[in-house]
Design goal:
Blueprint lengths: L2 E2 L6 E11 L2 E5 L4 E3 L12 E6 L21 H17 L2 E6 L4 H6 L2 E3 L1 H10 L4 E5 L2 H10 L4 E3 L15 H10 L4 E5 L4 H4 L4 E3 L4 H12 L5 E4 L2 H10 L6 H4 L2 E3 L5 H4 L3 H10 L4 E4 L6 H9 L8 E3 L2 H10 L4 E5 L5 H7 L4 E4 L14 H10 L8 H17 L1
Parallel strand pairs: 1-13, 6-7, 6-8, 8-9, 10-11, 10-12, 12-13, 14-15, 14-16, 16-17
Antiparallel strand pairs: 2-3, 2-4, 2-5
Helix pairs in contact: 1-15, 3-4, 4-16
Length: 401
């Protein structure tokens, strides 16, 4: 039983229908909100029911528009900007970090490429005065938390994150008040304010370890608030056996947040891409909307478990490196295919959904990166007292491994 938190929901989504069957539930058809006094209907089927939309979730998830896609730069301009950026980095004693989902030309000019936590740890180790973080805002915050003595810049302060924005510190405090004494585990993809209210952070690759560590240290009956990603929460519930233990599952509460990009990779994408590529392995990020369905298929014997792997972004690269001649369907933001192709040119990589595109990551461009370094602008600095509180759950997570 995966519990969901909601307080006095104020809106309904127009078409959030939940179809009940013997295997669980499935939600479809997100639409615009309407007042709770005018609930929607989900059609004539008796197995459908309209659910109230959690008031803590955005009423509209970001939708990709043509204007969200930055126009391609001329190859000669890319070369000129890249040279200028590297010269500026040397002058400023700066390290350039780029997330796996960034544009290829941004990745090419970076000193390090990786996931959010890995990059922040590189910033911490680096002998540099300036950190230029090519990612979204919470990532630059994490770098500031771990490297308070360094100046952390981001090329565009508007580069946000729908998952991070799905929970605020006030909302977390309200949730904690409902469950006094519960341990709070928050995905590292959260704001500094949320981290400061958290007992343990986790990543997609160590979420299970963190939960098991809490049980070992505090007892298996410990109440846990897990967030903000509901798909990662569902993955943890299945992988730790909570799904088969209703009594303990009732003490594992999951926030109704999600990354709009990963949530858009749905079970239908599994069926379509597997039909088109029957010999390919499936590499699925636990944030994806298809992850829980894929685990159900594996549990029911409908999918060979050898062909399905729940992996973090760094885990995807490592898996493909170990099997460089393989064929892989990749279920995560499509920018991930670029570093995978750079690492293993011989592998055949297939997008699970060609629209899995994070417009926030793609806000970071070479001209913005150049301007930020040249003018030393767009600093992200976390208040010292707040950073001290937020650092503790990160350090606990890192110590677990």
């Amino acid at each position: 039983m995966l519990t969901r938190f909601a307080l006095k929901p104020s809106v309904f989504v127009e078409k959030l229908c939940v179809h009940f069957n013997s295997d669980g539930i499935r939600a479809d058809h997100f639409g615009r909100g309407r007042p709770v006094s005018s609930p929607p209907t989900c059609g004539p089927g008796r197995d459908e029911v309209a659910l109230p939309y959690n008031r803590f979730m955005p009423t509209e998830l970001p939708v990709l528009q043509a204007s969200d896609v930055p126009p391609p730069l001329d190859p000669e301009l890319i070369k000129e900007l890249s040279v200028e950026i590297r010269e500026l980095a040397e002058e400023r004693n700066a390290i350039i970090l780029a997330h796996n989902y960034e544009l290829p030309e941004v990745q090419d000019v970076a000193d390090y490429i990786g996931d959010s936590l890995g990059l922040s740890r590189e910033a911490e180790k680096a002998d540099a005065e300036v950190v230029e973080f090519c990612g979204v805002h919470f990532m630059a915050e994490t770098a500031s938390i771990l490297s308070p003595e360094k100046k952390v810049l981001i090329p565009d302060l508007g580069a946000g994150c729908s998952l991070s924005d799905s929970i605020t510190a006030d909302q977390l405090r309200e949730w904690k008040a409902k469950f006094p004494g519960a341990m709070v585990v928050m995905y590292v993809n959260t704001s500094a304010e949320v981290k400061a209210e958290t007992d343990y952070c986790c990543t997609s690759s160590n979420a299970i370890k963190v939960i098991q560590h809490i049980w070992a240290e505090h007892g298996e009956d410990t109440e846990i608030l897990f967030g903000p990603d509901m798909w990662l929460g569902a993955f943890v519930e299945r992988a730790t056996g909570l799904k088969d233990d209703p009594e303990r599952a009732a003490r594992f509460h999951v926030w109704d947040g999600e990354c709009h990009v990963h949530a858009g990779i749905r079970p239908d994408d599994i069926a379509r891409t597997r039909a088109e590529n029957p010999d390919a392995e499936f590499l699925i990020h636990p944030e994806c909307g298809c992850s829980t369905q894929a685990m159900e298929y594996v549990a029911n014997g409908d999918i060979d478990p050898k062909g399905v792997h729940m992996l973090s972004t760094s885990g995807m690269i490592e898996h493909v490196r170990e099997n460089p001649e393989g064929e892989y369907i990749v279920a995560t933001e499509n920018g991930m295919l670029y570093p995978m192709r750079q690492a293993v040119p011989g592998a055949k990589l297939i997008e699970a959904n060609r629209m899995a595109y994070c417009k926030f990551m793609k806000m970071i461009t070479l001209p913005k990166l150049r301007d930020s370094l040249r003018d030393m602008k767009f600093e992200v600095k976390v208040d010292e007292a707040l950073a001290e509180k937020a650092r503790l759950p990160i350090e606990r997570m890192v110590s677990i491994g």
